[in-house]
Amino acid sequence: MSDFQTPENAPSPDPGEGGKNAFTVAYCGTCGGERESALVSALSRAVGRSAHGVLARATCLLGGTCGSAREPETDGPVVLVQRCDRVTRDPRGGVVTVGPVRTTPDVNGLIRWLESSDLTVDELPLPLRRAHYKRMASLN
């Protein structure tokens, strides 16, 4: 039995704005397992509230390790987020690797970050930064 439940996913803080940012969110459709449906549901609602958000499903974003890692503390779906131009959809800044997204509070933190921040790593809730720093270290 999973401790992962469908998040409450409260309305955007400023529904009239339709979200603060234009962004693209890619989630791993390979490694999510039982957590994937709740995550996708929450992301779909958040992107739907955004005037400029896009949600995409991809095969494993980290080469088959994001949700099936052998380390229990890293087990869980990973999401990639990139800010983009509202009109041209051109990338604006680097990709932020978010995760692992393992619990309902993780999903709620991700949604709040998407809807109310500038989408920087520093504004991401601390538990969701692990995959980003791990990915950056592997690129060095």
Offer a quick outline of the entry.
The chain is an alpha+beta fold and 140 residues long. It has helices at 36-49, 104-116, 130-139, and strands at residues 23-28, 53-58, 79-83, 96-98.
Question: What does this entry look like structurally?
Answer:
The protein is an alpha+beta fold. It contains three helices and four strands. A four-stranded mixed sheet has the order 2-1-3-4. Helix 1 links the parallel strand 1 (23-28) and strand 2 (53-58). The radius of gyration is 14 Å and the shape is globular. Mean pLDDT is 78; it is low at 1-19.
Draw up the topology in text.
Elements: E1 23-28, H1 36-49, E2 53-58, E3 79-83, E4 96-98, H2 104-116, H3 130-139
Parallel strand pairs: 1-2
Antiparallel strand pairs: 1-3, 3-4
Helix pairs in contact: 1-2
Residues in helix, %? 25-40%
Low-confidence stretches: 1-19
Q: What is the percentage of strand-forming residues?
A: 5-15%
How far the N terminus sits from the C terminus, by CA atoms, comes to: 38 Å
Cα shape: globular
Radius of gyration: 14 Å
**Sheet having the most strands:** 4 strands, mixed
Mean pLDDT metric:
78
Oligomer: single chain
Class per helix and strand makeup: alpha+beta
Q: What is the topology, as strand order, of the major beta sheet?
A: 2-1-3-4
The DSSP helix count reads 3
Number of strands: 4
- Helices and strands, in N-to-C order? EHEEEHH
